[in-house]
Amino acid sequence: MGAIRIAIVGLGKIARDQHLPSIAGNDAFTLAATVSPRGEGLAEVPNFRSLDALLADGPAIDAVALCTPPQVRYDLAAQALGRGLHVFLEKPPGATLAEVVALEGEAASAGVSLFASWHSRYAAGVAPARAWLADKMIRSARITWREDVRVWHPGQAWIWEPGGLGVFDPGINALSIATHILPRPFFLTEGTLSLPANRAAPIAADLSFRDSAGTPITMDLDWRQTGPQTWDIVVETDAGTCTLSKGGAVLTLPDGVEAREDREYAGLYARFAELVQTGQSDVDVAPMRLVADAFLRGHRMVVDAFED
Ligand code: NAP
User: What are the residue boundaries of the Gfo/Idh/MocA-like oxidoreductase N-terminal domain, all occurrences included (predicted)?
Assistant: First the structure.
């Protein structure tokens, strides 16, 4: 198989920061085109104002990476799958669970690969944490994800709209790690979502989960943190404490600290190449299901209005 000719759809922050360098650094791919509604393309490949325009007039492609906000992703993905293209979905994979499940069926019918990516699962500490925890007795887990929304999401109106997830946009990354490293499935028991008076999505959330063995798991999400930022998961076990910090990049176990270089998106593109080459899909909605349950079962509390 020759290099996979891929188009990036949605040339925003994550496409520029991570997808472009990861595609350039992986011989399994060649960037064939971009789609950017504002027309701000790159010098080296053709840019189109819409996926329609790319499919009508563009170069031949094998795959698309959808880096748009989640609210528009289903239609783009369905259109690409319908044209026999492999599809890489940024996280979260859609705006609703049902649309992601529908896409999985559409990919299977089209005989192409669908990858619902979770970049945080590829952070350096996550695989060794999962391996270490596999045979431990877990007593509790605590997730703390506190960051400054003004630093990380300046002016991103979509993130505050329905389907944009608010503080769960980063929070779902923590859940993508927790659902991967904890050996048993867990589920929400109670939660509070703090909604700014002028916004449709939460700015903070305080959640309690438990797993099928009764293990308590808590999650503290807050977008109002200034100063040092916190992206930690602390798991207490019968053999000591396992701490993942810096979003999964640094792992601390009772016998020492492991920290390695950031390879999240390189790992995602290696996985996507493998899926395309072996004719498989990878669609795990577990992190998104927990977020949906928080919206389904959490209390809502109105807090101060938020302005960018
Ligand atoms: P962003 O900077 O707002 O970029 C989104 C891009 O999508 C914009 O360039 C926008 O173009 C484009 N777009 C919107 N509708 C489109 C359509 N119908 N067709 C083609 N392009 C369209 O957002 P982002 O931060 O990159 O986030 C995008 C996704 O990546 C989100 O799901 C987010 O959770 C995920 N993600 C983000 C980060 C991060 O650090 N920012 C990290 C990991 C994952 P216009 O501006 O022209 O409308």
Answer: 4-115
